[in-house]
Structures are given as C-alpha cells and as structure tokens.
Amino acid sequence: MSEKFDVIVLGAGPAGYVAAIRCAQLGLKTACVEEWINKKGSPALGGTCLNVGCIPSKALLESSQIYYEASKGLSEHGIVVDGVRADVPQMISSKDKIVEELTGGIEHLFRANNITWLKGTGKLMPERQIAVQDSDGNTSAYSAENIILATGSKSIEIGAVPLHSDVVVDSSGALDWESVPQKLCVIGAGVIGLELGSVWRRLGAEVVVLEAQDVFLPMVDQQIAKDSFRQFTRQGLDIKLGARVMSSQVDGNGVSLQYTDSSGEQNLTVDRVIVAVGRRPNIEQLTDPETDLLMDERGLVHVNDACETNLPGVWAIGDLVRGPMLAHKGSEEGVAVAERIAGQHSHLNYDAIPSVIYTHPEISWVGKTEEQLKEAGREYKSGVFPFAASGRAKAQRDTGGMVKILSDKHTDELLGMHIVGGHSSELIGHGVTVMEFQGTSEDIARTVFAHPTLSEAIHEAALAADNRALHIPNRKR
Ligand code: FAD
Ligand code: AMP
Fold first, then answer.
1. Residue 68 has pLDDT above 90, yes or no
2. Which H or E element spans position 183?
3. Does residue 162 lie in a domain region?
4. Which of 413, 306, 429 has its CA nearest to residue 366?
C-alpha cells in the first residue's frame, strides 16, 4: 500500500511551497515533491525563484547598482570616492549566501508545518497516484485526495544559439559569472534580458541587446516603454530592435552572431552571450502516458479559472499554467487552490496582478495599458506626473521617469497604473490596492500622501487625470 496524503504538491517553487504551507495550515496532511539540487550538490526547496530567479537576480542588481553609483554617481552628492573596484567573486558568493539562507528558511517552514518533503522527481500516475524517483533511481508510490502540479518553467533554448559552457549561457549561467565580459550580447529584450544586461553593464561590460520584435516591451504601456528605452540607451545599453538572431559560432576569440534587421544580414562578435528568449513549462516526464492530462494551445497545462485541470482532484498553478510567469501570481494561486481544497471559496483577481522590471529605473505596472484600452474601445482619462517635478526625486538625484494613471472616463474607476522610475516596485502597491477596492482616481486624489515622498507623484498623477495637478501646469481647460 502506498502512503496516502490529503494533498501532494509537485514542485516547491513559490507556487508549490506556498500551496503546501497553506494546505498544512488548513489541517491537511501534505507532502511536497521537489527534485532541485543546488550548486553545492544538496537538495533544495524554493524553485527557480529562490535558487536562480527573482532573489539571486535582485541580489546582483542591488550589488551592481551600488558599485555603479559608487564609481559614477556620487560626485553630484559632493562625495569623492577613489579606487572603487568590483570584487565579482565576492558579489556572487554573497548572492549565494542569500539564496542558501532563504531556501533553508523554506525547509524550516516545511518542518514547522509538518509538511513531508519527498526528495526526487515526481510523476503523475492514474488515480491520483504519484511516483517519486530519488537520486539513487529508486521509485516509491504515494497517493492523495488532491494533487497540485506546480513544476514551473525553464529557459527556452534556441537552435541558432546553443548554450556553450560559460560562454553562451541562459539566465542561470549569467547569475554565476565570476568575471565581467568585455563585450556581451543579450538575446531577447524581455524582463530577464534587461535585468541581466543591466547587471553586467553596470559592472563594466559593453552590452548589445538583440530583440527580434520591432516594438520595445510590447506588454508595457508604450509611453512608459519609450521613456525607459531612452534611459537605458543613455546608460549605454545598445538595444537593437527588429534584430533576429539566425546563427552563431563559438571559437577561441569568443562568439560570432549572425542576425537580420531591416538593413539585411549583420554580424556581431562578442565575448559572451546570454540567451533570454523566454521560458517554457516543465512538463516533460511530468505525467505517465496513461494519464490524460489536457494541455492548452501554448503547451501549458490547461486549467479553468479555479486552477482545476481536466482530471478530477488534480490542480495546476504557477508558471505551468496560463497567466503571467510571476512568482507572486503562482503563490496566490497556491493559496487559492489550498483554500478551495479545504472547502473554502477563494478568488484571485487576475486583473490586479502587478508586474515589475527591476532595472534602473524600475518599470512597474498594474491593470490595462493605454494601448489595451484603445483597442477595447474603452473611454478613459489619463494623468501623468514626471518625477522631475518631485521634490523627493530631486533630493535623491534620481528624477527620470513618471507615474501614469488611467481611469474610466465615466465612472473614474482606476483601470491602470504605470510607473517608470526610482523604486517604483515599492510604489505600484498603491495602484494594486486601489484596483482591488475598485477605487477611483478621485479616491487617490483625496488621499493624503506623506511629503516629501516619491508616492506623491501618484497623488499628482491622479489629480492630473482631472486636470488639477498642483506641481505641474495642467492642460488648457
Ligand atoms: P518554479 O519556481 O520554476 O518551481 C518549480 C519547481 O518544481 C522547481 O523547483 C523544480 O525543480 C520542481 N520540479 C519540476 N519538475 C519536477 C518534478 N517532476 N518533480 C519534482 N520537482 C519538480 N518573477 C517575479 O515575480 N519577480 C521577479 O523578480 C522575477 N525574476 C526572475 C528572474 C529570473 C532570472 C528568472 C529566471 C525568473 C524570474 N521570475 C520572477 C519568474 C519566477 O521565478 C517564476 O515565475 C516563478 O519561479 C514560478 O514559480 P513556480 O512555483 O510556478 O515554478
Ligand atoms: P520574454 O519572453 O519577456 O523573456 O522575452 C523574450 C524576448 O526574446 C521576446 O521579446 C522575443 O521576441 C525575443 N526573441 C526570441 N527569439 C529571438 C531571436 N532569435 N533573436 C532575437 N530575439 C529573440
């Protein structure tokens, strides 16, 4: 007889480990299967996010920005710093320490919540059975009333640019380089490409970003995207749009890349390459052929609004299913599914999930872009406030960017908030909260914001939506 649980979760990334914790809190006998082996060769929880994603990338973004400011940005403050240099191996080991502490923290939480960690690779079998193969190749069987699939995603590889030791790498490889490439090519100007390109640019690499699409950040409000493009270009990121990489060769001199753009075929030679062309779901080996798990047209596990798959008692969450590939989206799906399993009614508002690109400036948004509203034929008002007019941004010597608010022309309901600037990842929460409460731009305009803070720019953008901003001239009435 196989050991039986109320719930078995497959995958311990931010979707799976959060689902497991919430299930355990609700009194369900819970196990979580995780196969991850970390850099030291030890099993680890936390998935992509904690091991090779959100956290290590933010650790390096922080270290590289401090280095960049110390070497370039302090003179305006009247601070003279001589002899600044980057100790890249120390940056990497400091990042590794943060990862180790956080993944160890999840292990502690599993113990505290009595969650059984089944170490190994899990496979969904018929009748809600799970087969787990450990690192010695031994397989054990388990069963559960409910199964939550949360096996996440991995980097897409392209035939034109195969990975090559530490010269042509994916995002994980680019988080472990212990020296700065002189010339770096990033393929893909998406979120991950821009973040990692920024890290290595700040540390001194010459960076060329090749992006196949003609539009920069098509998912971002284009007024915000254009402003950020200008700021990235000023920082020295050479972003080439409409540039599709077709082939590559690695030799002793580095990497030669052939790409096409509007002028024809081009060549580029660099020391190293980061391939950042997107991520795809981890579905290989996930199911036994006898289970008829339904996939969608994009190769993701098909789920309904409640994260139920076509198989009774089998749920799927996180990067494995439709919706943005974001850690917090997966975690909230995990909570919602756990609560549904426990008989509660849980709802996740997919219209109010914030997105952030952690470059400098940070790009943060929630809700609809102006382009989406136009396409939907929705009548809207917009209010924009530039950080150049913010006293706090001036005091911080960081005045690039703006806050943009979009609200319904008739009801004034907040439909979108878009920010490029400073630490906008910490500001966007205001927009998310107002959208969750179905608030209006007038609600923001009537709210008191502390002075001087960057958040006052949100207040002013809301006032601007009604043509009554106080610290910039308004449109002629
Ligand atoms: P994952 O985190 O991918 O976890 C899935 C887990 O399942 C893994 O641990 C894997 O080992 C395990 N697994 C897979 N198959 C099996 C199996 N058969 N048996 C057992 N275990 C299995 N998102 C943000 O929100 N903010 C960010 O700042 C951010 N930065 C990122 C930076 C980088 C460089 C990358 C690569 C991603 C970033 N993301 C960010 C995306 C974020 O990491 C993912 O959206 C998130 O990790 C998805 O969570 P998940 O739990 O669905 O999957
Ligand atoms: P994201 O999915 O947000 O991580 O973005 C990945 C980006 O890589 C997309 O904008 C793609 O257009 C881009 N991309 C994919 N293949 C290529 C290629 N061969 N050359 C250049 N860019 C590419």
1. yes
2. strand 183-187
3. no
4. 429
End position of a domain, from candidates 227, 252, 277 = 277
Q: Pick from 348, 331, 347, 377: which is nearest to 18 by CA?
A: 331
Q: What's the 3-state SS for 81-131?
A: CCCCCCCHHHHHHHHHHHHHHHHHHHHHHHHHCCCEEEECEEEEECCCEEE
CA-nearest residue, atom 27 of ligand 1? 54
Question: Which backbone phi and psi does 322 adopt, to 5 degrees?
Answer: -55, 160
| Residues 291 and 334 placed together within one structural domain of the fold | yes
**Distance of alpha carbon 415 from alpha carbon 454, whole angstroms:** 21
Place of tokens 């992509």: 48
Number of domains observed in the structure of the chain: 3
Q: Name which of 220, 219, 221, 232 is nearest 384 in CA terms.
A: 221
- Is the beta carbon of 325 within 6 A of some atom in ligand 1? yes
Candidates 360, 451, 459, 471; catalytic one: 451
pLDDT in tens, 158-174: 999 999 999 999 999 99
Cβ atoms of 122 and 10 within 8 Å: the answer is: yes
Cis peptide before 289 (omega within 30 of 0): no
- On the question of pLDDT at 475 being above 80, the answer is no
Question: 213: CA distance to ligand 2 center in Å?
Answer: 7
pLDDT at 57 over 90: yes
